[in-house]
Write a structure and sequence with these properties.
The complex is a heterodimer of chains A (432) and B (141).
Chain A lengths: L4 H4 L3 H22 L1 H9 L21 H6 L13 E6 L9 E5 H17 L7 E4 L7 H12 L3 E3 L6 H11 L3 E4 L1 H14 L10 E5 L5 H11 L2 E8 L4 E7 L6 E3 L4 E6 L13 E7 L10 E7 L1 E2 L11 E2 L4 E2 L4 E3 L2 E3 L1 H10 L3 E12 L2 E10 L8 H19 L4 E5 L14 E3 L4
Parallel strand pairs in A: 3-4, 3-5, 5-6, 6-7, 18-21, 19-20
Antiparallel strand pairs in A: 1-2, 7-8, 8-9, 9-14, 10-11, 11-12, 12-15, 13-14, 16-17, 18-19
Chain B lengths: L1 E10 L4 H11 L4 E8 L3 E8 L2 H10 L3 E13 L4 H11 L4 E9 L2 E8 L2 H10 L3 E2 L2 H6 L1
Antiparallel strand pairs in B: 1-3, 1-4, 2-3, 4-6, 4-7, 5-6
Classes of the chains: A alpha/beta (432), B alpha+beta (141).
Chain lengths: 432, 141
């Protein structure tokens, strides 16, 4: 099923025309409403008149997460706050989350994008959606919520956690579509098995999984364990949240809603566009956003784009599975974690040496983080309690900065490798 | 009366304790008393040695997390109730015991106490005529 056939299946030439018209309008809009972009464009000697079509996009300046932080919280908004009706933030970044403001129109376009996703997964108004993404600053919960309501489905706003309740309601209410992170889906699958309730007593048929990278193997595992069809949903809060892209029933790449978010792939080093089908860093330009439109936002996600028409009939470009990151960001249980955040916590606590080793793993389908740190010589105590208090101090600080639990291990002096160059601070043992 | 105890932080891994004892042996430092407190990740080795200052230096040079902690050593009769009596004196004086270790040999037992308040502890025990052990004696044991 296709939600918006005229757009999703439009011939590429027509789509390009729409993108061209929208880009031109957008550049004019940000030039006059976002001082940040006006300044950037002026520095490049650009005026809106230089942008006459989508092919001119490469003339425009890039935007990075650092730009968002530098303009925290609302510096990149193109509208006065009176027009912002919703504020979301990216999950877990040092002190300052990356903030995104939405106008009423932004929310309705986001909902449109999610309606396309859910329809592609075969869902409609007869379905019962269980949203087990976190509700809150994180875009997952509310994003999926409004999309599912928009297609007329019945929505259970569960949020994440409380697995036994998830399973009980899934069973009692007859949930047909589950939305959560893929690792939580596996966790739920195991919990259902442990509950002893037979699978045939559940009506679950499909799952909408995203917010963290996952593999084909994980898909197979989820599909086997839950006996459902598992679909990928792609998104990032800076661009809108979930629903930037989605899989169709052929699961041959993730279709991007490119009439709203124009995707490019660039070489992460030279920042030059690569040939279609080549791998590089994914970059998005908002074509329709009002609240906080971004030009050429560098996602740091590495992937490739394919422009051939899909068997499903859609002409929307297809993105390959995310192959990795061009920066050191980790996605832990759906939360973005930068090693620099951990570093900043350690540096602000005088009891610890500025050396650490973070080991990421996936145990029973849940991401785990173990942090080894050394205590400064003068803070070693002969009392266990005092040592445990030190451990508690750093773990609760990490918890509040990252929004995630970290298993802290105090280690002996000099047991963490010192290095003059770029030290290996993170070991990711997850099989991606 | 105040005895210097070495406290060494050790990760829970094979051979670590051996390394400490071998290092001290090489330096001709003898161990008079020793106890280990542990939890899931690490242990703290507490020890009375023949030359605490030199042992500290040697361990430090070898990058061990070592501290010197002041403790009190007493000798009490190896009979029922003897320790209870001593502990009673301390709790009445409001002295808390962080940890202690002890071993009896024939008629008496040597007890190492790490009190919350060293001064009060020594004062109370002296007043109550508990036999305090001189540091030099403990190092030589």
């Amino acid at each position: 099923m296709i939600w918006n056939e005229s757009i999703e299946c439009m011939d590429r030439e027509g789509l390009r025309k729409i993108q061209s018209i929208r880009l031109k309008k957008m550049v004019e809009y940000v030039y006059h409403n976002t001082p940040f972009y006006r300044k950037k464009m002026q520095e490049l000697g650009l005026t809106p008149d230089d942008i006459n079509g989508i092919e001119d996009i490469t003339k425009l300046p890039f935007t990075t997460k650092t730009d968002l932080r530098d303009n925290y919280p609302f510096g990149l908004c193109a509208v006065p706050m009176s027009q912002i009706v919703r504020i979301h933030g990216s999950s877990g970044t040092t002190g300052k989350p990356t903030v995104v403001g939405y106008t009423r129109k932004d929310l309705s376009l986001w909902t449109e994008c999610l309606s396309r996703c859910f329809t592609a997964y075969g869902a409609d108004n007869r379905d019962i959606f269980q949203i087990a993404y976190g509700y809150g600053l994180f875009t997952g919960g509310l994003g999926a919520h409004y999309g599912a309501e928009n297609i007329g489905a019945s929505v259970i706003p569960m949020s994440s956690g409380n697995t036994s309740k998830q399973i009980q309601l899934m069973h009692d209410f007859g949930t047909t579509v589950l939305c959560c992170t893929p690792s939580y889906a596996l966790f739920i699958a195991d919990a259902i098995k442990d509950s002893g309730i037979p699978r045939e007593d559940f009506k679950l048929k499909a799952g909408v999984f995203g917010a963290e990278p996952w593999t084909e193997n994980m898909r197979k595992e989820i599909e086997e364990k839950l006996a459902i069809k598992a679909y990928d949903i792609y998104g990032l809060s800076e661009i809108s949240g979930p629903g930037v892209g989605f899989e169709c029933e052929h699961q041959n790449g993730t279709h991007l809603n490119e009439d709203h978010f124009f995707p490019e792939i660039v070489d992460p080093h030279t920042l030059q566009p690569v040939e279609p089908g080549q791998q590089g860093e994914l970059v998005f330009t908002h074509l329709t956003k009002e609240g906080m439109p971004l030009l050429r936002y560098r996602t740091k996600d590495l992937t490739a784009l394919h422009y051939e028409k899909c068997e499903c009939g859609r002409t929307l470009v297809r993105m390959e599975r995310i192959l990795g990151r061009s920066d050191d960001m980790l996605i832990i249980r759906g939360v973005n974690v930068f090693p620099t955040q951990i570093e900043s916590v350690i540096l602000e606590l005088p009891e610890f040496e500025p050396h650490y080793l973070l080991t990421v793993d996936r145990v029973n389908n849940t991401d785990t983080m173990e942090l080894k740190v050394e205590v400064r010589p003068e803070f070693y105590s002969d009392e266990i309690n005092k040592m445990l208090a030190l451990k508690k101090k750093i773990s609760s600080r990490l918890q509040s900065v990252l929004g995630l639990g970290v298993e802290v291990k105090l280690v002996e002096p000099r047991s963490i490798e010192r290095s003059v160059g770029k030290a290996k601070r993170v070991i990711d043992n997850r099989k991606m | 009366m105040i005895t210097k105890q070495l406290s060494i932080f050790l990760e829970n891994k094979f051979g670590r304790l051996t390394e400490v004892t071998e290092l001290l042996a090489k330096e001709g430092i003898n161990l008079s008393a020793l106890c280990i407190a542990e939890n899931a990740d690490f242990g703290i080795l507490r020890s009375i040695v023949s030359d605490p200052d030199r042992a500290y230096k040697v361990l430090k040079e070898n990058h061990f997390a070592v501290n010197i902690t002041d403790v009190v050593g007493i000798n009490c009769p190896n009979v029922p109730g003897a320790l209870a009596k001593v502990l009673n004196y301390l709790s009445e004086a409001g002295v808390f015991i962080e940890y202690m270790y002890s071993f009896a040999n024939n008629d008496s037992a040597n007890v190492i106490i790490r009190p919350s308040d060293l001064e009060t502890c020594i004062k109370v025990l002296t007043e109550k005529k508990v036999e305090l052990l001189a540091a030099s004696d403990l190092y030589r044991l």
